[in-house]
Amino acid sequence: MSCPSFRGRPPLSYEGQMRRIFLLVFIIALSGCSALRSAKLFAPTWFGFVQIADGVYVDDAMHASQQEELLKTIAVAKGRVSDFFGHLEGDPTIFACSTEACFAASGGFTAKGTAYGSSRVLLSPRGLGLVTISHELTHVELYSRVGDFRAWHAIPPWFDEGLAVLVSQDPDYTIDTWLRATDNGRGAPALKLLGNAVPWAEGQLSYGTARHVVGEWYSRVGSEGFFRLLRGIKAGRDFDFLFGRTPFIPGLADPLPHAGGPPGAS
User: Fold this and answer.
1) Which of 8, 22, 168, 241 is the most exposed place for a label (fewest CB within 10 A)?
2) Per DSSP, which regions of the chain are E strands?
3) pLDDT confidence of residue 104
4) pTM higher than 0.85, yes or no?
5) Who wins on pLDDT, 72 or 14?
6) CA distance 129 to 110
7) Does residue 2 surpass a pLDDT of 60?
């Protein structure tokens, strides 16, 4: 595609440049496209968000008590993710909505939360708890460790989601629940079908299967194998080769607890 030439035209004044930026943002705000609506997060205070802490924004309708509770939960969630990874390299900006209207207007859909690479997290009013925040921060940390481009192009969604469910200690996806839902694993779908023929909304068949496979693998390779995989992906090596093509056999491996976690885990 060729770009129009502006040769011979005088440069825009500062005010002219700002008008163009404002017009662009205004068009984005009116757009029905989720990707464009999420662009509001680049200028959050223009669209009803207020900053309540370093890297944390909430919609201006959120009550002060809810803001305080949110900050406490974020701190615990960061601790949970840090415990798994050893320390945190990701430092995303978190946007939290207290209303569904805010979430939808900012690019959200039906999910409780969304991570935009390693830089931003958007939370719905249904996603202000420890599990969801830990889940999204796990995505962020994974992207931060290997790089956004590598994460998007080299890591399959089932591993990304399975790891997030595992690290967040989501109580909805215990091994016992998954075994009952899949006839002891015999009814588990192929990994390549997750998110496509088997939508993520299927719950146990999608997130549950991904969590079980990642958990079983982690119980065998441990943190050393996990970080070896991340280093390999960052270096451009093939995920399947690094992960290993070991046939999936249902088991009871459960490297992380799901019950008795910190208060507010659900």
Assistant:
1) 8
2) 49-53, 56-59, 93-96, 113-116, 120-123
3) 92
4) no
5) 72
6) 16
7) no
Alpha-carbon distance of 105 to 225, in angstroms, equals 41
> What is the chain's length?
266
pLDDT in tens, 137-182: 999 999 999 999 989 899 999 999 999 999 999 999 999 999 999 9
Torsion of CA 140, 145, 148, 149, to 10 degrees: -150
CB 161 within 8 A of CB 210: yes
CA distance 32 to 50: 23
Interatomic CA distance for residues 167 and 84, integer angstroms: 7
Tell me: the pLDDT tens digits for 27-69?
Answer: 444 444 445 555 677 777 787 899 999 999 999 999 999 999 9
**Could you tell me if 121 and 115 are in contact, meaning their C-beta atoms sit under 8 angstroms apart?**
yes
Helices 209-234 and 130-146 pack at an angle, to 10 degrees, of: 30
DSSP per-residue string spanning 136-189: HHHHHHHHHHH-HHHHHHHS-HHHHHHHHHHHHT-GGG-HHHHHHHTTTTTTPP
Q: Which residue has the higher pLDDT, 90 or 110?
A: 90
Pairing of strands 113-116, 120-123: antiparallel
- At 232, list the tokens: 């390999």
Q: Shortest CA distance to 132 belongs to which of 96, 93, 182, 82?
A: 96
Q: Which two tokens stand for residue 220?
A: 């065998």
Contact in structure between 194 and 208 (CB atoms under 8 Å): no
- Ordered by where they begin, the domains of the chain are 25-146 (3.40.30), 155-266 (no CATH)
How many Cα atoms occupy the beta-carbon half-sphere of 128 within 13 Å? Answer: 22
